[in-house]
Design goal:
The protein is mainly α. It has one domain. 82% of the residues lie in helices and 0% in strands. The protein has helices at 2-29, 41-62, 66-73, 76-111, 116-131, 136-149, 154-165, 168-183, 187-236, 248-272. α2 runs antiparallel to α3 (66-73) and α4 (76-111) packs across α5 (116-131). 14% of the residues are buried.
Length: 276
């Protein structure tokens, strides 16, 4: 009888361990790699439509050829990769701002006497109230709290988050925080220093964006001006540009113009894309 109870207890303990492992794997599968971006079907359709319109416009204005339009369509992977980088940077900027607020909430909780783990649980509640349950950092804190309930060390969770975030400030904070946790440092001071550094960088970036906002508008207008001129000439003086199409000399000249236009566009984008 006692042997049967022992066997039943061992089986129950094994099922419990298996369930905890399954939960852990499920949590790991739900984490986000912020250095990658997965497009939704809606975003994919929007990108395809946008690229077809852009390709069709350039093929008509510079070549008036369906063959060129088909050739231009092969450049969609380049457009997609460029769009992906932009969305990754945009999401990382949002994550950095929310991360700063979350660690400040954790610091306030620790100052009130909470332990480190419980401070992150309190930070989750505050972030949920402030940003909503679907915010990036709210999801991360929910994941961390779930893992903490499975006795996964906080250091491991922070290292994992820092690796996935791709943000230098987050990585530096996690390294210093883990070192202080092991050696007994002032967590509140570390958090305030990190939050202050992130705030300074954000304020500097906002100041730069404000200063160049006028130039950015000028850049967008100058990028569109050559296309508007072509459309204006084509509509106002019908037949004036016919000599530039469907002949070797015209194709060569239009190719040079298109190359110069794309080079100027990429150069202006690079000048205006300032990241600290």
């Amino acid at each position: 009888m006692g042997k049967n109870r022992k066997i039943a207890g061992d089986r129950k303990a094994q099922r419990s361990r298996d369930l905890r492992k399954k939960e852990k794997r499920g949590h790991e599968q739900n984490t986000i790699n912020y250095q990658e971006y997965l497009f939704s079907w809606k975003e994919r359709i929007q990108m395809i439509v946008q690229y077809l319109i852009i390709s069709g416009g350039f093929a008509y204005l510079f070549y008036r050829s369906w063959i060129v339009f088909v050739v231009f369509c092969t450049g969609y992977p380049i457009y997609r990769a460029r769009k992906k980088r932009q969305l990754i940077h945009k999401r990382q900027d949002v994550l950095c701002r929310q991360f700063k607020d979350s660690i400040q909430c954790a610091a306030s909780a620790m100052a009130a006497g909470y332990s480190i783990e419980n401070a992150f649980r309190e930070a989750y509640a505050e972030m949920k109230m402030q940003y909503g349950s679907d915010a990036l950092m709210t999801e991360e804190l929910r994941y961390m709290n779930s893992c903490l309930s499975l006795n996964i060390p906080l250091e491991q969770l922070l290292y994992d988050f820092a690796k996935r975030s791709g943000l230098e400030d987050v990585q530096s904070f996690c390294e210093v925080f883990v070192f202080a946790k092991r050696s007994g440092g002032d967590f509140i001071q570390i958090i305030h220093m990190t939050a202050s550094r992130i705030s300074e960088k954000q304020e500097l970036m906002e100041s730069i964006q404000t200063e160049i906002s006028g130039k950015r508008m000028e850049q967008k207008l100058m990028n569109l001006m050559p296309l508007f001129i072509l459309v204006y000439v084509d509509v106002s003086f019908q037949g004036y540009l016919d000599g530039m199409y469907h002949n070797p000399a015209g194709i060569f000249i239009m190719t040079i113009c298109l190359t110069a236009y794309l080079g100027a566009y990429l150069l202006s984008e690079k000048i205006m894309s300032i990241r600290i």
